[in-house]
Amino acid sequence: KTNALLSILKLQPVVPVLVIDDVATAVPLARALVAGGLKAIEITLRTPAALDAIRAVANEVEGAVPGAGTILNARQYEEAVDAGSRFIVSPGTTLEILEAARKSRVPLLPGAATASEVMALREEGYTVMKFFPAEQAGGAAYLKSLSSPLAGSVFCPTGGITAQNAGDYLSLPNVICVGGSWVAPKAMVEAGDWDGITRLAMEACKLAR
Ligand code: 3PG
């Protein structure tokens, strides 16, 4: 399952993090992102439309690899998998989430923000984690200082990342990709500016790893 997760996260330097209010926007938005080169797409379970959005993207958007974010418990994990999620993201880690992940065929990207949290996940066999909330927890400098003592753990930092600071993270040895919402701004989604979103995705794709 780690290899499946790694191959999804290696598809692109930036995983879009989406909050979908209107399920009707999910398919055109995902198509716009895929057209710009961003295939792995995280849809957060923060809105009532989220599960239907994942289902629509899984069924209708060729080339997309939909995942579910903001997964807080086992029930959400199972519902997200049933909807067609190919990866699951949680902001932190609980025993319940770890147990749900053990039982599931779909891999978990669990959240961690401190050395102790990373160590606890390593004891559970995890080498790939989400560093959240990245900017607020200490940013690229903080994550860099975990790279030597906690060598072997790699991260997808998320939270406060933008086109301007993404490069600081992507240049670190322990970063595999970053996550962020900046490639799908709410105003552009509401305006149906799919070409504009494809352009943002293309720029994000060019960020060096
Ligand atoms: C989130 O959970 O909201 C993600 O970390 C995205 O954060 P961002 O909106 O700061 O990119």
UniProtKB/TrEMBL annotation:
Coiled coil: none
SUPFAM superfamilies, A to Z: Aldolase (SSF51569)
Enzyme Commission code(s) on record: 4.1.2.14
Catalytic activity entry: 2-dehydro-3-deoxy-6-phospho-D-gluconate = D-glyceraldehyde 3-phosphate + pyruvate
Pfam families on file: Aldolase
NCBIfam families, A to Z: eda, PRK05718.1, PRK06015.1
Record family assignment: Belongs to the KHG/KDPG aldolase family.
Record text on subunit structure and interactions: Homotrimer.
Protein name from the UniProt record: 2-dehydro-3-deoxy-phosphogluconate aldolase
